[in-house]
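User: Show me sequence and structure for the first protein, then do the same for the second.

Assistant: Starting with the first protein.
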Amino acid sequence: MANNINYRDFTDDNHYIELAGEVMAIRASGDVPKACIRTYGCQQNVADSEKIKGMLAEMGFEFTENAEEADFILFNTCAVREHAEDRVFGNVGALKNIKRKRPSVVIGLCGCMMEQKHVTDRLYKSFPFVNLVFGTHSLHKFPELFYNTITDGKRVYETGVDDKTVYEGIPIKRDGTFKGWLPIMYGCNNFCTYCIVPYTRGRERSRKFEDVVAEAREMIEAGYKEITLLGQNVNSYGKNLDENATFANLLREIDKIDGDYLIRFMTSHPKDCSKELIDVIADSRHISTHLHLPFQSGNDRVLKAMNRSYNREKYLDIINYAKKRIPDVSLTSDVIVGFPGETYDEFLDTISLVKEVEFTSLFTFIYSPREGTPAAKMDDPYTAKEKSAWFSELLKVQEEIAAKRCAEMVGKTYRVLVENATDKDGILSGRTSGNIIVEFAGDESLVGQFTEVKITEARNWILKGELA
């Protein structure tokens, strides 16, 4: 394979699962050991937690949401925004009392935050009751690290070890029964100047084409109705594989599998979003008509400072092609307000792009500096108060657009995957192919199934409907 990517079967090293299971059967405070897993951040973190739960389940663990009764407490952390870091440190500090009452409880942290030295240094110095710390590259070594923690009583820290390997065969305990995550690649090569992900997740590594298709088939045969393909940049899938292993071809191959299901994917990078990919979506049987394509800024100078590798014209070209080929396409995006050095006039270019595209919804953020990224060292002359005012202006514009788009859906009928019964008696909630929430009256037996819903009322972010 190109780029020195290795592939290895996790089951070659799983004897630590059995060994750790034997120890925990003795150490457990109850009949069986219990684990409490808290996940912060993106869908990739959720998928990683499902693998950790899979390994723990094979050790004999059951799972609880109550940290007070757990024998093992693990926080899977996110490093994308400063607020997420602050939350984690606050919540870890609250575990000190649990450790004082029950010294045998094992407390661990993993995920992207753990791949930052200033974070692990602070943990080691200020949180001595934390037993286990490991980064994103050591997920496959979790059974060994956990075993070492519970047998020698010493704090175990393992971070920064990227062996450029994709590990297959790690057991998975999925959180859902009809919606599931399917990672297709790991890492990122883009190095946007504001983003910490390439430093915490490493370089791009694509799973083998046939392994992804096989797992998709297994999930569909197991009854999963919605499968979301995951990657830091799914459009880069296959760059370390042969020339036919592109993301467009992967989608095309999965779409051929018989069954009643929907394929979604997160996240796309505009620089790699091809017209071929749009064509595959337009011509598919099972691929969602929702395209999440983060543009971050509508101004070319700011985009260059962000190292986004595309400009406004290129972004709008792919958006307009998507609108042409997929008439009912639902477009969403990410926007950063107040990137270092961004002027108000440059921010207005973002506003004008939002008005031109008319997104279904936006994920909007005020710029948050991340230690270790180039943007954190850039001059940033504008105040938090000024950026907050711009942010409010953007939200107001998007709210008006969302209200208009939702109003246009009234009277139309959509296929909806019913996700849950709300707290209101007899009210169900689901999402359209375009990822828009719909609430309607119906029997709880419909949860996990597709049904046709006619839209009767529109609100800014949620539609009301009735069974068609």
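Switching to the second protein now.
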Amino acid sequence: MKEVFKYLKGDRNIWVLAILLGVISVVSVFSFIPILVKVKGLSYSYLFFKHFFLLVLGFVIMFLVHLVPMKVFSRLSKIIFYVSIILLLLTMLIGESVNGADRWLKIPFVPFSFQTSDFAKLALIVYLSRQLVKRKDQFKEFSVIARYILLPIGITMFLILPSNLSTAALVGVFCFVMLILAKFPWKWIGLSVGSVVALFLLLLMIAKVQPDVLPRVETWRMRLVRMFSDESDPKENMQATNALIAIKNGAITFDHPLPKGPGNGVLKHYIPEAYADFYFAAMIEEGGLPMGIVIIMLYMWLLYRFIRVALKTENEFAFYMVMGISIMLISQALVNMMVSTKLMPVTGQNMPLLSMGGTSAWFTCIAFGMVLAVSRESNKETIETSNELE
């Protein structure tokens, strides 16, 4: 193991947690894909090796990214952000439609598509981290912070909004946290939050007259209705109902003292997204409450290690970037758990490094690599300081 960590720099706990989540993903996803095999007509072996290949390639990307100096992320932040905006616009114009939403952009010359919102989230975090450091002495100048901080956040959110409300909301959440950490003036935070809410309500009113403005408004409304109504159509509420049944089936009782075990779940044959959006429910059905607790504890430990990396660095840009990534990944996992337990309306958010997410796993690995890059440089600075003291 020591030989391995000669090459894997940075926080060893994060490496171990990432590898452990990857191993769990490979085993569990193979068990959760029967409905995908049935619907798509693909073989188990094809789906398994595709997921395994994408995950392995993701870890290669993670390794390469963790070797990149922090200053490179900072210097490229503006270019990366502008590219993400262009990709979001292209997705709106020529994106592939999935479940009624244009979220995917085809990668030329290869048989893969990717969600541009995954790239945009990371790009915004890097860009915002840079601007919070660069403009910290200009926080009182509204024209400056509106141009370089508030407007980029708003543009990103509203380009993502038409196809994915939950992702746009998560962008708002991690940006809100980053602004608070940067001691951004509360009057500007309040103004921006109020403006976002007002603009969203305005868009909803416009959508009543011109449905093409936000074609998914009715989908959002019905998801809220189905969540709080006991009289909704069982067929329309099938995913959430089956997820709750799956969790109930995973309960450990005197009659059933052991979990069902891998491969023995029933509801995964009926939950369309058991391998992704309802991963947590499928996991509890086969692994029981103990496995659910293990998953939660792994993410909590990961959050703790991320925060430690952020607090350890003396670089403000790195601090904001790591904290933004932490909130983004953990809130994404939390949404998946809450949807599976019907604590919030059905929406599409994968479990980072666990769900079968295709290219989305690559962006998660890039995010991990960025945190590890910060940890690697912090450890290097600590070692150099210790050597100087000796």
